[in-house]
Design a protein that fits this description.
GO terms for molecular function: ATP binding; metal ion binding; protein folding chaperone; protein-folding chaperone binding; unfolded protein binding. It comes from Actinocrinis puniceicyclus. InterPro entries: Chaperonin_GroES, Chaperonin_GroES_sf, GroES-like_sf. Keywords: Chaperone. This is Co-chaperone GroES. The model has no long low-confidence stretch (mean pLDDT 79). The radius of gyration is 15 Å and the shape is globular. The chain is mainly beta and 100 residues long. The protein has a 7-stranded antiparallel sheet with strand order 6-7-1-4-5-8-9, with no helix packed on it. A two-stranded antiparallel ribbon has the order 2-3. It has one domain (5-14, 32-99): GroES chaperonin (10 Kd Chaperonin, Protein Cpn10, Chain O). It has no helices and 9 strands.
Length: 100
């Protein structure tokens, strides 16, 4: 990985999903602008805010997809990450493990 790039693996599938009320939402349904979660797989040498293994929130419209050994990944700039959920942040008292 180079510079400020972050390689992530998107959570879940892009197919059908269920609402919290149990309603099935088909994959073809148009959703309003929605951010997505992903797991950080690799980072560039200039990335300062995330580490490998963190979960990040990003805009699916601002991404570049790449396939490595049959697995699809998303390549992002560090500045395109909106939030980070990290296990390492849960050690301090009162921390939620999520920072924006």
């Amino acid at each position: 990985m180079l510079h400020d790039r972050v390689l992530v693996r998107a959570d879940g599938a892009e197919g059908e999903r269920r609402s919290s009320g149990g309603i099935l939402i088909p994959a073809t349904a148009q959703m309003s602008h929605r951010l997505a979660w992903a797991q950080v797989v690799a980072i560039g040498q200039n990335v300062r805010t995330v580490e490998t293994g963190d979960r990040v929130l990003y805009d699916p419209d601002e991404r570049a997809e790449v396939e490595v050994r049959g697995v699809e990944y998303v390549l992002l700039r560090e500045r395109d990450i909106h939030a980070v959920a990290a296990e390492r942040l849960g050690d301090s008292s009162g921390a939620t493990g999520l920072y924006l």
